[in-house]
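User: Can you help me understand a structure? I only have the sequence.
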Amino acid sequence: MKRDYFIDLAKGFGILLVILGHTHHIPFQGYIYSFHMPLFFFIAGYLFNNEKYYNTSMLEFLKSKFKSIIIPYFTMSTICYIIFILIPTLKNFITKGFLDIKLLERYLIGIVYSIGTTDWLPNCSPIWFLTCYFCAEFIFFIINKKHKSVLGMYFLLAGCGIIGWFIEKYINVRMPWNLQIAFIAVVFIGLGNLFKYYRFINISKKAKYITVLTMTTIYYLAVKLNISITHDSLPVALAENRYGNILFFYMGAISGLIIVIYLSKILETLIPLNKISFLGQNTIPIIGFNYLIISLVSKICPRIITNHWYLNFIIQVIVVYILILIINKIPLLQKLIYGRKKVI
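Assistant: Let's start by predicting it. Here is the structure, written out as tokens:
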């Protein structure tokens, strides 16, 4: 199947927003968080092969996704566990004679359960996305099997959205592998899939420009209103199953991701953005090692981390490129982190 360059661009812009959103002291974090993770779920839906997976058994699907999503999850979380938990704990045991078993157990539980906070995942909490993505794709796989029409898909997606909202509003419990967030995420997977089905990407260039301008207005107003209503500069945080006002969340997320999708489609024919599309082809290790890179940069340039968020961001991106090039030179790491040997 032909690779869509604009999708790699969109993922590249998305992963740059992830890096930027996790950079210390940025003044517009709430605007990034409002849509950057929904963007990835939307793209997953766009790339979802309905015909292929309709004829795929549940076991085959789970085996395929376990290999491409869950093995990388456990690989990267284990690497971070060794670097940030096991080695310091053993060092402390050797020097002070104290072995913190509870700390070792806590982070192992966090990895197995996939609790997306730094209190439970060893300096790799953004990796919660992978287990949530696995669950959301599995839910959508079932929807793809069961729905009899496009209208039926709408109803099933709406049902998932209601379940996700109900859990966040009235139960607020953290489920294994972020299943509670997956019910919200699958709505965006479904919207991406319907976006492809209706071929909205093929509208005229003029219509794309008008849509981008319109969506920019909606996006700004929706996020601004969500911040105002909740009295919170960060009303949306998917990792914490927090959405602020649910209506403004969906308005901000959908308008924001549409802006990125259409801008990527416009830009793919105007200017070469190979460096950004390269990042889009390598999102998994960036998500997994994002906090590791932040820790590394903070050790090398502590003053920059504190005083200059934009320089911090630029240095992180440079380190990301170096890390990806190293990973892609080592076949075993490629297989474990991407779930396959990667050809670039």
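Now, to help you interpret it: The chain has a mean pLDDT of 94. Residues 5-276 form one domain. Let me know which part you'd like to focus on.
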